[in-house]
Amino acid sequence: MAGLRSRWHTRRVHADLMLSLGLVKTALDTYLELQLWEDVILCYTLLEMKHKAAETIRECLETEETVKLYCLLGDVTDDIKCYEKAWTMSKERSSKAQRHWGNNLYCKAKYQEAIPHFEKSLELNSLQESVWLRLGYAALNIENWVVAANAYRNYTYLEQREFEAWNNLAKAYIKLGDKERAFKVLNEALKCNYDNWQVWENMLVVSIDTGNFSDSIRSYDRLLDLRGKHLDLEILEILAKVITDEKLDAHGQNSKRYLDHFQKLMGRISISHPNDYRMWLIYASLPLKEILVCPKLMKAFKCLTQGNWTSDPKVCEEVVKLCLDMAKLVLGLNVDGKNVSVTDKNEIKEQLSSVRLSCKAAHSAVKNARVDCEKAEELLPQLEEFIDVLTKKVTALL
């Protein structure tokens, strides 16, 4: 008997190999001899001969009626009555009957109808990975987040290496408002697939919402590694603010401790997005040494004043306000202090001169603009005063 079982197993493995190589007809012949009806049906389906599969199953049913055969007949004939018959035959105890019934509806994208059958099948046998997965996907499609979360959670108990399941579980938790659990689940997803940028993007948002700011910066860094470019100004603004305001993170730590890491991140972003003025303004808002701030504001100014910028009243107003901020900043720099290095003194002088020229250029452009820049023009007298002070300061330092 052991030898017969061994020979039977060897023939099945051989048939499986033939099928994997695309030799469907060869595999079919062996499956028919071994009476492996599910494999027979698969082969007939691949050969577009479902009618032959149905014919074979009906011949078997004439010999013996079984739940399995009725389920397979339902699969090839698309007749729901076959599943009903299988369910009745099993005295409503066959997880297989409910699974096949649910799969039939699932493949037609009738997700709402498929869910009760999957749930019933799992009540009878909870160790069905594929059914948990399909239940989760069906629930996800109809936005039944409670069922989706339960399904994917149970699937991950059985299979921990499928990152998409972890990611979908996190999505369900997010929709349910449970971002703490979503954060933990996304960490599991990343263990399975460290190179999936969508998971890192989800982690970026969830870690912000849960106060895990270190993970947010790490996620942003990883996104840049994977995609080369990524600009999320809302996220960057939040991180800059929590660091500047020294907010406590999820672990009760002062967020200012992340300044160096975030500054390096902003440096990377500035290389990939050098022409986004909002990015430069966020960069300049960090609690940096004052002498390092003005160059970033100057780059924001350069980005804003490209092309025909005076045709937009809002841009005109923003440019003038930026000029006022730059003027206030450079005039506050201590160029005559005893502890100021020669290098810093020269840098401050250069910044004073550059800001003065930028302010004068902006003043002239807004004043001569062909559109009504009323709000910007209201700020011009104040800008003129700063230009005078800057001119005197620059002259005195010559």
Structure description:
This protein is mainly alpha-helical and 398 residues long. Among the domains are: 126-193, Tetratricopeptide repeat domain (Serine Threonine Protein Phosphatase 5, Tetratricopeptide repeat, Alpha Horseshoe), CATH 1.25.40.10; 195-288, Serine Threonine Protein Phosphatase 5, Tetratricopeptide repeat (Alpha Horseshoe), CATH 1.25.40; 309-398. Helix content is 75%, strand content 0%. It is built from 22 helices and no strands. The chain has helices at 2-20, 24-34, 37-46, 50-63, 67-77, 80-89, 95-106, 111-124, 129-141, 145-158, 163-175, 179-192, 197-209, 213-227, 233-244, 259-272, 277-284, 290-304, 313-331, 342-367, 374-378, 380-397. Helix 2 packs antiparallel against helix 3 (37-46) and helix 6 packs antiparallel against helix 7. The chain is elongated. The model has no long low-confidence stretch (mean pLDDT 93).
